[in-house]
Write a sequence for this structure.
C-alpha cells in the first residue's frame, strides 16, 4: 500500500540554524500539506501546496518557513532560522487525485524537530 | 476561525466495553468531518469521514460516527472495544470555505485494559 514517507525521523539543531524536512508524498497525489504538533498541543495546519504553489497557509507559516517541490517526488519544508518554539513533530500529508478536491489526507510518520 | 473540541482527553475502558468519544466543532457553514487514529509508534490513519448524505457513517475496525448538525457534533462510537484499539483518536474538520486545511481537536488517548 502506498504511503507518505518523511526523513529524517528526528532532527536536532541549534537555534538560528536552517533545517530542511523532507517528505515523499504518495505518487499520484496532487495536494501536499505540512502540519506540526508541539508537545502536548493540537496538530496545527501550516501550509498546503498544489500545482507548484502555496494554496493556503496559516498564521504560523511566516517568512521563516518555505516549501518546495524540487523534483517530481520530494516535498520539503525549510525553516530558515530555527527558534526554540519551533521544536515540534512535523507531519507531511498528501491527498487527492484530479477528480476530488476534498478527500482523505494521508499522513507520514512525522519528523521530530528539537531546537536547542 | 473554526475550532474543534474533544472533551475527553484520556479514556480507560475494559475490553468489550462500549466507546463514545465526543467531538464538537465551531463553524456555521458546510463542513467535512474526519476521525483519525494514531496507534502507538505509528502515523495518523483515517478511521472514517463524512462529506454528505447519511449522517451515520461507518469506518474501519467497527467504528462509526454520527454527524448531528444541530449540535455541531461528530461523536465516534464503537459497541465493543478491543485491547488493540488502544491509541490516540483525533477529530478533524475541514470547512468548505477553507480550502483543504484540517483543523484538529486535541486528541483523546484511549487505553483498553485486557
Amino acid at each position: 500500500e502506498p504511503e507518505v514517507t518523511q526523513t529524517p525521523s528526528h532532527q536536532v539543531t541549534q537555534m538560528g540554524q536552517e533545517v530542511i524536512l523532507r517528505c515523499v508524498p504518495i505518487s499520484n497525489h496532487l495536494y501536499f500539506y505540512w502540519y506540526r504538533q508541539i508537545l502536548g498541543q493540537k496538530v496545527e495546519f501550516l501550509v498546503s501546496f498544489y500545482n507548484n504553489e502555496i494554496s493556503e497557509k496559516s498564521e504560523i507559516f511566516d517568512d521563516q518557513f518555505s516549501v518546495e517541490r524540487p523534483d517530481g517526488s520530494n516535498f520539503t519544508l525549510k525553516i530558515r532560522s530555527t527558534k526554540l518554539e519551533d521544536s515540534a513533530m512535523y507531519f507531511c500529508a498528501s491527498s487527492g487525485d484530479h477528480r476530488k478536491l476534498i478527500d482523505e489526507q494521508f499522513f507520514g510518520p512525522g519528523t521530530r524537530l528539537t531546537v536547542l | 476561525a473554526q475550532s474543534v473540541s474533544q472533551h475527553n482527553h484520556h479514556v480507560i475502558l475494559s475490553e468489550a466495553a462500549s466507546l463514545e468519544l465526543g467531538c464538537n466543532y465551531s463553524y456555521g457553514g458546510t463542513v467535512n468531518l474526519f476521525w483519525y487514529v494514531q496507534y502507538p509508534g505509528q502515523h495518523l490513519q483515517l478511521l472514517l469521514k463524512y462529506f454528505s448524505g447519511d449522517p451515520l457513517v461507518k469506518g474501519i475496525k467497527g467504528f462509526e460516527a454520527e454527524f448531528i448538525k444541530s449540535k455541531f457534533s461528530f461523536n465516534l462510537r464503537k459497541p465493543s472495544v478491543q485491547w488493540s484499539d488502544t491509541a490516540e483518536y483525533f477529530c478533524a474538520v475541514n470547512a468548505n470555505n477553507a480550502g483543504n486545511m484540517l483543523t484538529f481537536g486535541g486528541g483523546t488517548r484511549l487505553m483498553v485494559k485486557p
User: Anything to note?
Assistant: Chain B touches chain A at residues 32, 34, 36, 42-46, 49, 51, 90, 92, 94, 96, 98-107 (CB under 8 Å).
